[in-house]
Amino acid sequence: MTEAITIGVDHGYAAMKSKNFSFPTGLVGYDHEPYTQQNVLEYGGKYYVVGSGRQPLQKDKTVTEDYYLLTLAAIAKELAHRGAEPTAAVHLAAGLPLTSFGRDKKKFRAYLLRDGQPVSFRYEGIAYTVTIAEVSLFPQGYAAVLTQQELLDEPSVIVADIGGWTVDLMRLDNRIPNAATCRSLELGMIRCLDEIAEQVRRALGLSMTAAQIESCLRGESGSTGEQVREIIHREAGAYVRRLLSAITESGLDACAMPAVFLGGGAALLKRHVSATDGLCRPLILDDVCLNAKGYERLVGQLSRAAHAAGGG
After folding, report:
1. Tell me, what's the pLDDT at 149?
2. Whole-model pTM?
3. Which of 23, 108, 183, 227 has the least CB density, counted as fewest CB within 10 Å?
4. What number of other Cβ atoms are within 10 A of residue 301's Cβ?
5. Which residues of 280-299 are buried (b: 16+ CB within 10 A; e: fewer)?
6. What is the DSSP letter of 114?
7. What's the Rg (C-alpha) of the chain?
8. Tens of pLDDT along 59-111?
9. How far apart are CA 229 and CA 213, in angstroms?
10. Dihedrals φ, ψ of 14, to 5°?
11. Closest by Cα among 148, 152, 190, 184 to 167
C-alpha cells in the first residue's frame, strides 16, 4: 500500500474542520437518493445530506455513528481537493480537549480507526475506498498554537479555544501545557447565539437564525436592520465580558500575560475582543481550520523525528 496521506480533522460540536474545509455538523439521513448529490454521503445503503444545520449536543461523540460519517465526508473533501486517488490509506490526525484527553483517547481512537479495515462509501457521486491506517490524537488548542512561532517565545500564554459548546482553557508555560490550569467551560458560541436570538425575539418579536446572527457578527452586509444589529453586537459584547470573567475565575490572569483566542468563536468575536477589555495582549487566531492544520503539522514533526532517530 502506498504511504498514508495525513489528514487533520477537528471534530467540533457546531462544525467539522479539516485543513481546507469547514462545514456544519448537521447530518440528515434518507433511505432513498435525495434530489441532489451536493454534500451527499452514501454509506451502508443509506444517504446522508452533510452540513445541514448542526448536531444535537453529544458530549460523548462516540455514542452514535454521526461523527464517524462526518469524518468520512471530511476525508473525501480533502482527498478531492488535494487531487488524491479515491482509493487511499489515510493517517487521521484529530484532537480532544486536554481536560478529557487521557479519559477519552483510547475510545475515540478506536471509534475512528475501526481496526484499520477499508471502508467503502460515495461522496458527491464519487466512490471512495479509504483505509484509516493510523489515528493520532492531540490536545485541541495546543496543536493550533504550535503553528504560531511568535507566541512560543512568551514564557506564559493563556489559550482559549472557543468552540460550539465549550471553551477549552489552558496555560502554556515555556511552550508546555500546565495541566493544573486546564478547564473546559460550557460557554461556547451556541450559548452566545441562543442568547442573542432570545434578546432579539424579546425586543423586536423577530426569530433570527444562527446563520443571520453569525453573518452580522462577521460584519457582512445583509438585510438585517439597524436595531437588530445593535442588539446582536451589544449581546456579543456582554458574552465576551462573561467569558473574560470566567477565564479570571478559572485562575488565569489575562491582564498579566497574552491571551490567545482561537476556534470558530474567535473568528466571530474578533471585533469584540480588544485590549480595552483589560487584556494584556489579546491575539485572535481567526482561522477556524487552525486545529486541523496543527494536527497535520504535529504528525509531520513526529514522523521526521522518528526517521531521524532511526537514521532514516
Report:
1. 80
2. 0.91
3. 227
4. 11
5. eebbbbbbbbbbbbbbbbbb
6. G
7. 20
8. 889 999 999 999 999 999 999 999 999 999 999 999 998 888 889 999 999 99
9. 9
10. -100, -30
11. 184
Place of cell 434518507: 30
Task: Give the integer Cα–Cα distance in Å for 65 and 70.
Answer: 9
3-state secondary structure (DSSP) of residue 188: coil
Please enumerate in sequence order all residues whose Cβ is within 8 A of that of 173, keeping only pairs 6 or more positions apart, or say none. Answer: 155, 156
Instruction: For residues 157 and 254, give the distance between their C-alpha atoms in angstroms, rounded to a whole number.
Output: 9
Residue whose grid cell is 488524491: 84
- H or E segment at 233? helix 226-249
pLDDT of 156 > 80? The answer is yes
The C-alpha cell at 291 is 486545529
Q: Is the pLDDT of residue 1 over 60?
A: no
Please work out, in degrees rounded to the nearest 5, the angle formed at the alpha carbon of residue 187 by the alpha carbons of 206 and 208: 10
Q: Provide the 3-class DSSP secondary structure of residue 148.
A: coil
The tens digit of pLDDT for each residue in 200-254 reads 999 999 999 999 999 999 988 778 899 999 999 999 999 999 999 999 999 999 9
Q: Are 39 and 50 in contact (CB under 8 A)?
A: yes
The length of the chain in residues reads 312
